[in-house]
Write a structure and sequence with these properties.
Layout lengths: L3 H13 L21 E5 L2 E4 L4 E4 L14 H11 L10 H13 L5 E5 L2 H16 L3 E5 L12 E2 L9 E2 L12 E4 L4 H10 L3 E6 L15 H11 L3 E5 L11 H6 L5 E5 L9 E5 L1 H4 L18 H17 L2 H21 L5 E5 L2 E5 L8 H4 L4 H13 L2 E2 L8 E2 L6 H21 L1
Parallel strand pairs: 3-15, 5-8, 5-9, 9-10, 10-11
Antiparallel strand pairs: 1-2, 2-3, 4-12, 6-7, 11-12, 13-14, 14-16
Helix pairs in contact: 2-9, 3-9, 10-13, 12-13
Length: 430
């Protein structure tokens, strides 16, 4: 496989784009080499500018759950385009999509559309503070909630560490009200409540997708929700990644937990920039123009994104592919584990619905500290060999793989062959 045109575009991109990319993970920094530039996609496949075709397990980091350019989504968007791109005023499609979203999530009476998952989380956290009148928020180490200042926090050692900015440009004052707990450890949450009386709520990825698909253990979420109710604190579920992907009603439906505030993105726009946050009426009453919590957006409820979202969710509900997702993910898990055993490579696989991730370690992964035991050098070798064999993966050990309903049995067989070659490459390299 040759990457001549991608290399050429990378060099051109360095002139006016930061690192030639518009999001850091696209730079391929953690796997070495230069980024690939994509030209087109259709169904389960994505094609780069050199004409190399790949089975896509990135799927724009989750939104393309039906595969690329699904005919019904494309038709819906094309119809919307004929009427205009943006109005700065309300449209009927906002109401239609709002009903679809609210009907899917228990306890969500109203929703507000924004332009990204980051915006959704910013607003969801602000809403929790407005409703409770309290300032502090607990987050979990390893959970990513967008690039807002107050949640870009690096956890140090220990279960309950002091908050320190995890990015340059974030002042310590911006994170002073953010407390860090350990995922799957309720005691680390309780410790914070024993030390502070002004905690508005806890924000959590029900399934952690940015430390490589980490799953709640032993009723952790249910126990967390029950405990928060005793403390008059809210559970904020960041389902930007898992919403409509794990189940139509998100991870909450599968896990049997109803959050107080839910943040969404990705799938609900069908590939177009969109986010949303919602809650029961008494909480959403705080949001302007009904209440005193201000949040606005020029492009919020964009008619093209709304059309893409309506078409995607309507078709997703019709297909109901979740059982098939589980079957396909189970097959891929077996392929990965059997192949790793064949070549004597340490590997564990975590999966949840249509999300999965292999870790190059022999340790079970239940939190961020355990995830960091994975051998990133082995993953880098694995990644590039998968690329060379026609499978497009996220260029990071700690990013989830995603499945689409467009993936075929032929695709699975091709992935199996690629995994065999990639795992053999790992074995002979270390």
């Amino acid at each position: 496989m040759k990457f001549k045109e991608s290399q050429k575009l990378y060099e051109q991109g360095l002139v006016h784009l930061v690192g030639a990319v518009n999001s850091p993970v696209r730079a391929f920094s953690s796997v070495g080499g230069n980024p690939l530039f994509i030209k087109k996609a259709k169904g389960s496949k994505i094609t780069d500018v050199d004409g190399n075709e790949y089975i896509d397990l990135v799927l724009s980091y989750g939104p393309m759950i039906l595969g690329h350019r699904h005919r019904k989504v494309q038709k819906g968007v094309e119809k919307a385009l004929k009427n205009g791109y943006s109005f700065g005023a309300s449209t009927e499609n906002e109401i239609i999509l709002a009903k679809i979203v609210c009907d899917a999530f228990p306890g969500m009476d109203k929703v507000r559309f924004v332009n990204s998952g980051t915006e959704a989380v910013i607003s969801g956290v602000r809403l929790a503070r407005a409703y409770t009148g309290k300032d502090k928020i607990i987050k979990f180490s390893g959970c990513y909630h967008g690039h807002q200042d107050s949640l870009l926090v690096a956890a140090g050692s220990g279960l309950a560490t002091l908050s320190l900015p995890g990015s340059k440009g974030v002042p310590e004052g911006a994170v002073k009200n953010t407390l860090i707990a350990e995922y799957n450890n309720l005691e680390s949450v309780k410790k914070h409540f024993s030390e502070h009386d002004d905690i508005a709520g806890v924000i959590i990825e029900p399934i952690c997708g940015n430390m490589g698909v980490v799953i709640p253990q032993h009723n952790f979420l249910k126990e967390l929700k029950a405990y928060l109710e005793t403390k008059d604190a809210l559970l904020i579920a960041d389902e930007v990644m898992t919403g409509f992907r794990s189940k139509f009603g998100g991870a909450q439906e599968l896990l049997g937990v109803a959050a107080d505030i839910t943040c969404l993105g990705k799938v609900i726009g069908g590939g177009f920039p969109v986010g949303a946050y919602g809650a029961r009426n008494e909480i959403m009453q705080e949001v302007a123009p009904l209440g005193g919590m201000y949040q606005a957006g020029t492009l919020s409820g964009n008619p093209i994104a709304m059309a893409g979202g309506i078409a995607t969710l309507t078709e997703l509900k019709r297909q109901n592919p979740y059982h098939q997702f589980n079957k396909t993910a189970a097959i891929l898990e077996t392929i990965l584990l059997d192949t790793a055993k064949k070549y004597q490579v340490d590997l564990v696989v975590n999966r949840f619905g249509s999300m999965m991730n292999p870790f190059f370690t022999k340790n079970n992964i239940t939190n961020f500290e355990e995830a960091q035991t994975s051998d990133t050098k082995k993953f880098a070798v694995f990644f590039w060999e998968m690329i060379k064999n026609g499978v497009f993966l996220p260029p990071s050990q700690f990013e989830a793989w995603f499945l689409s309903s467009a993936i075929s049995n032929r695709d699975v067989k091709k992935i199996a062959k690629a995994v065999d070659r990639a795992m053999e490459k790992v074995a002979i390299s270390f």
